[in-house]
């Protein structure tokens, strides 16, 4: 369960693949994300695909918006997940207590203005590109693991298990 003082929210920039959006929703449910926001017109098809087998879209607020900057959750730090030279590698990244993770589309990048708006930019070191769902899973799993290292006996989303 997400604590009122610690949470992770997800922002998707015009996701291309409805199958991946369904898988993102499943990851959000597995790792306790509090909400999923998306831009663009491609998402509406996702609800027809079986990748959201746990029906997370009925339990996690999933909202279409024109601009992710308009829905920054209160107190959250916007974090772009993007392959850029100036980005921090995920293994060295300290997750904010309240995070709004922003992911680009499978067939493009996050707009430069949106990246510049983010307080943190992080990349996942790999030998190749990952799809959207895999990227979301890796970031949320990294958050989960690092919280468990801080306090292995705490609920994964409690205040004690997240860095300040």
Description:
With 164 residues, the protein is of the alpha/beta class. The chain has one domain (7-161): Alpha/beta knot, CATH 3.40.1280. Helix content is 23%, strand content 18%. The chain has a seven-stranded parallel beta sheet. Helix 1 (18-30) links the parallel strand 1 and strand 2. Helix 1 (18-30) packs parallel to helix 3. It is globular. Mean pLDDT is 84; it is low at 156-161. Residues 10-141 form the tRNA/rRNA methyltransferase SpoU type domain. GO terms for molecular function: RNA binding; RNA methyltransferase activity. One of its GO terms (biological process) is tRNA nucleoside ribose methylation.
Compute the separation of the termini in Å. 19 Å
Low-confidence stretches: 156-161
CATH architecture term: 3-Layer(aba) Sandwich
Order of helices and strands: EHEEEEEHEH
Assembly type: single chain
- Specify Rg, calculated over alpha carbons: 15 Å
What fraction, in percent, of the residue positions are helical? 10-25%
What is the third-level CATH name, the topology? Alpha/beta knot
CATH uppermost class: Alpha Beta
What is the typical, i.e. mean, pLDDT? 84
Number of helices, where a helix is a run of at least 4 consecutive DSSP H or I residues: 3
- State the strand order across the main sheet: 3-2-1-6-4-7-5
- Helix- and strand-based class? alpha/beta
CATH superfamily: SPOUT methyltransferase, trefoil knot domain
Q: Let me know the number of strands.
A: 7
Measured by DSSP, the beta-strand proportion falls in 15-25%
Largest sheet, in brief, is:
7 strands, parallel
Describe the global form. Answer: globular
């Amino acid at each position: 369960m997400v604590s009122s003082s610690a949470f992770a929210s997800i922002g998707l920039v015009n996701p291309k693949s409805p199958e991946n959006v369904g898988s993102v929703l499943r990851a959000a449910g597995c790792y306790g994300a509090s909400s999923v926001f998306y831009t663009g017109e491609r998402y509406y098809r996702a609800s027809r695909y079986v990748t959201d087998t746990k029906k997370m879209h009925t339990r996690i607020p999933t909202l279409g918006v024109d601009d992710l900057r308009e829905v920054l959750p209160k107190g959250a730090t916007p974090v772009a997940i993007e392959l850029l030279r100036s980005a921090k590698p995920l293994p060295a990244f300290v997750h904010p207590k309240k995070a709004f993770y922003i992911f680009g589309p499978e067939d493009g990048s996050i707009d430069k203005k949106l990246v510049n708006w983010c307080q943190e930019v992080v990349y996942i070191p790999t030998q190749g590109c990952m799809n959207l769902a895999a990227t979301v899973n890796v970031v949320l799993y990294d958050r989960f693991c690092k919280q468990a290292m801080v306090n292995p006996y705490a609920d994964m989303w409690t205040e004690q298990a997240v860095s300040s």
